[in-house]
Design a protein that fits this description.
single chain, 8 helices
């Protein structure tokens, strides 16, 4: 396991997790942040509910502080939540207490979270922050290996622009908070993910 200092999401979790997770000014207000999670889950739910074999186990990859996991946990007996940052998972424990949701099992991404059949596996706005395609592929393979129902993975496939190319070569200290390594979206075409 790499040292904690190597994961930028640990720093983001310590500094202000909601700011880095939301990244959209309209979500930064506390109630709007949690409502956005409910709205996203409602959208996902409309697309998957008819295909779910049952509602026993869901797995969220890239849980953060639980913006999506809280509304999903109300629909399933258990939810395994996976994140690369132990500090995000610590924040999630506070979220559980705040919303009275106790059916979470917390896992680091390197833990064996894929050891039993899952009815629903999902990830939204997570893979866009992962630089290494091999890490994404490994995560998808692990999810596929335990999937007994439906998966919903959201990928960001915005084109590479000149502005982004220039920004990617700037020193870290010159970048605005939301464009720093770890938080900024990795630009990839849809064909990269299909491959």
């Amino acid at each position: 396991m790499p040292p904690l200092s190597e994961n930028p999401w640990d720093k983001f979790a310590k500094e202000n997790p909601q700011f880095y997770i939301s990244s959209k000014s309209r979500w930064r207000e506390e109630d709007a942040f949690w409502r956005s999670g409910e709205q996203t889950v409602a959208y996902i739910w409309d697309h998957v509910v008819a295909h779910l074999p049952r509602r026993h186990l869901a797995i969220e990859i890239g849980v953060g502080i639980g913006r999506l996991a809280v509304p999903v946990a109300k629909k399933f007996s258990r939810v395994k939540v996976v994140d690369a940052s132990p500090f995000m998972l610590q924040h999630l424990q506070h979220t559980c207490a705040r919303f009275g949701v106790c059916n979470f099992e917390l896992h680091r991404d390197t833990d064996p979270w894929d050891t039993e059949p899952a009815d629903f596996i999902y990830s939204a706005l997570t893979f866009q922050h992962v630089e290494d395609l091999g890490t994404i592929e490994t995560t998808i393979r692990r999810a596929a290996g335990c999937l007994a129902g439906v998966a919903f993975f959201q990928f960001d496939t915005r084109p590479m622009t000149l502005e982004v190319r220039v920004r990617n070569h700037l020193p870290y200290w010159m970048l605005p908070k939301l464009h720093r390594r770890g938080i900024r979206r990795i630009r990839r075409g849809a064909n990269d993910f299909r491959a």
